[in-house]
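Q: My collaborator sent me two sequences in one message, no labels, and asked for predicted structures for both. Can we handle them in order? The first one she listed is below.
A: Yes, handling them in the order given. First sequence, followed by its structure tokens:
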Amino acid sequence: MNYPIYLDNNATTSCDKRVVAEMLPYFSEDFGNASSGNHIFGWKAEEAVETARNQIAKLINANPNEIVFTSGATEANNLALKGIFESYSNKGNHIITTNIEHKSVLDTCKYLEKNGAEVTYLEVDKEGMIDLEILEKSIKPTTILIAMMYANNEIGTIHPIETIGKIAKKHDVLFFSDAVQAVGKIPVDVKKQGIDLMSLTAHKFHGPKGIGALYIHKNKPSVTILPQIIGGGHERNLRSGTLNVPGIVGFGKACEICLSEIDANSKKMLLLRNYLEDELLKIDSVFINGNISNRLPNVSNLTFKNIDGERLLRMVNKEIAVSSGSACSSVSQKPSYVLKALGISDDNAFSSIRFGLSRFTTESEIETAIKIVGETVEKLRQ
């Protein structure tokens, strides 16, 4: 067994070897610019990009022309929020979101507030779920967008996306979802679930880093959005810049693999995650954070009461790579804002660890992780 064991797959995943193999020719052989329409190098690159666009669209039940490539989910979230706010300013300025969104959504909302937006931050219950009745009552004549993540990156709680989509349609409001943690792990259907805009990124499901996409609904009525990066008119004038062809190719391949293997991989991760929890919950004063039943199959967020979480992380991370929450907030010495939103005390939030499994996680790795965490907790409590 290789050490340390990697159980931080919500932060990023290893790139599947099949994905790497698909990408390699586009670094040194078929290296053309997809916008070079006058020769075969450009044609090959463009063809590869459109093949990937089709693969990505198929995974989420979208049309290929509804996929806009970005540098990642953070850019996609910025493009969605800022682009909609600017495009629909004649209708209103009100956005509804939650207080447990990813920082790239929350920080963008704060930015928009400084520029005239009114933002309602819905609170969640102790399991990380919103109150749908409060959501609907929060909608105003000036509401232009509901921005709600598909599944939380720290606790794995899945929102009732299809119901939220119906509420949005009922009130003629657009619905944007950050689906970064969900895509590739559970089935996502933008048409069935009434999603108008959705962000996703390859490196969360064994694709390369540095490539993401924004789905923008184009069937009647079409969603209009103003670009945030201009200069060249790439991606149908929605996101200018030379396309990352190798990254896009890898993105597409990762989606293709997920589509064919998602059921088997989801069941495997669920079994291993449940095994991990069942054993660790045998330790005194350990409990699960978030909704136990309605969550992603690969995520477990556990509180080890009366333990210094930072010391626990330092001790176990020599052999197991885990985290205390979002990679984007890991430099902060503050307790997780997601766990705080659930009503968890500072002490318990600091004593919480997130375990993120992947399709490559093995039973022997989970067995070893259980042993190491259990022994470390015992030492710390002594």
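Q: And the one she listed second?
A: Here it is, processed independently of the first:
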Amino acid sequence: MIKSRDELNRFYLADKIALKEHAYAPKWRNLIFGEGDIYHFQLLLRKVEYYHNKNKNIFEKIFLSYLYRKYIKKSQLLGFTIPLNVISQGLSIAHRGYIVINPEARIGVNCRIHPGVVIGEKHGKSPKIGDNVYIGPGAKIFGGVTIANGVKIGANAVVNKSIIEENVTVVGIPAQVIKK
């Protein structure tokens, strides 16, 4: 949770580094080709999280309301349903396309998420995803599962059981470890 300006700046920097080339798209390329939209979405996400978490005066509440509406509009444009305070710093969203994340899920540092990913609840329990996790296109993660650090989840994999072994690759329906 971002509670101070220093934390906000750390999140900005970590997200910029995680996105690499997308973060440095010139404004004219953004206008013509749509490059940098994801980076701008992530900046907006972090700013809304910051103002949502801090003690606000009346002007900051009004500003938060404006930012939140802008955040929702950008989310809809890109196809993302990403709630506040779910993902830690270093988020890297690969492309536009639908991404749905449950508000109770928790995602660690330096996670890369591709389009088509659904991270949802099952029987009232939501996933806990570790640091440096790669989630491939179309992957689905459901229930009160725990994903260890450094796990790579393949395209279209369905994870419905915990993966407690670090630095492994999982694929399939249901997901199974194929590479250590």
